[in-house]
Specification:
Number of helices: 6
Order of helices and strands: HEHEEHEHEHEHEEEE
Structural class: alpha/beta
Helix content: 25-40%
Radius of gyration: 23 Å
Distance between the termini: 84 Å
Strand order of the largest sheet: 5-4-6-7-3-8-9-10
Shape: globular
Strand content: 25-35%
Number of strands: 10
Length: about 230
């Protein structure tokens, strides 16, 4: 008689249970339940398709890229999507570069947008955490898109990750050439400018073309798409 071990006993128990349940009973491999997360689209169909609908609530996303890469346009698209759905959003401006008129031109509802000017990195991180923990915002954007003397410490990002998850608020961080959030980001995009776009005679700059690479995506595929961004009037 073969030895009876824990695995053999479990197997016999499963067989007995299947017999009791009837001929249609079967064993299937278990898997984690699918999360039903609301997503905020960028308004750029090829990118939103790659992202599974956009940036997810309760998660941290990062958009990194140099100047004139479409980084700001992408962030404004997210704010416009959320405010169009009658949601409140916040922008923590640590670069003093937010232009309300340009934001309104691309569809951001300024009446639903809280603009926080934070001249120092520490103030920007603290303001972001306060906004996330307060709740009531669908999306909070933190603009760090300038060269930093030092990257924020890991524990700062961990606090923001936890605060975003607790209130189901999407946090989107804008970074310059190098990504800042690292492994704490659920989603990370890197943007690269390709060429400016001109129209008319004389030729006038009307936008730019850029490549967006999804370099980190915990819940979906990575890849890249080429996009066209139109300059605000």
């Amino acid at each position: 008689m073969p030895p009876i071990g824990p695995g053999t006993a479990r197997h016999a128990s499963v067989e007995a249970l299947l017999c009791d349940l009837g001929p249609r009973a079967q064993v299937v491999r278990g898997r984690a339940p699918q999360e039903d997360l609301r997503r905020w689209a960028t308004g750029l169909a090829p990118l939103d398709h790659l992202l599974g609908g956009g940036f997810a609530e309760g998660r941290v996303g990062e958009i990194a890229g140099p100047a004139s890469s479409g980084r700001t346009a992408l962030a404004l698209g997210l704010l416009a999507t959320a405010t169009a759905r009658e949601q409140s959003v916040a922008l923590v401006d640590a670069t003093d570069s937010f232009d309300p008129a340009s934001a309104a031109e691309v569809g951001v509802d300024l009446e639903r947008t809280l603009w926080v000017r934070a001249p120092a990195l520490s103030e920007g991180l603290r303001a972001t955490e306060i906004l996330l923990r307060a709740g009531g915002f669908a999306l909070v954007a933190l603009d760090l898109a300038r060269r930093l003397d030092r990257a924020p410490a890991s524990h700062h990002w961990l606090r923001l990750v936890r605060a975003a998850a607790a209130t189901r608020t999407a946090l989107v961080v804008l970074s310059a050439d190098a990504r800042q959030v690292g492994s704490h980001a659920d989603l990370a995009l890197e943007m690269r400018p390709l060429r400016p776009r001109f129209e008319g005679t004389p030729a006038l700059l009307v936008g730019l073309e850029a490549e967006v690479a999804v370099v980190r995506h915990r819940r979906g595929p990575e890849g890249s798409v080429r996009l066209r961004f139109r300059s605000a009037p």
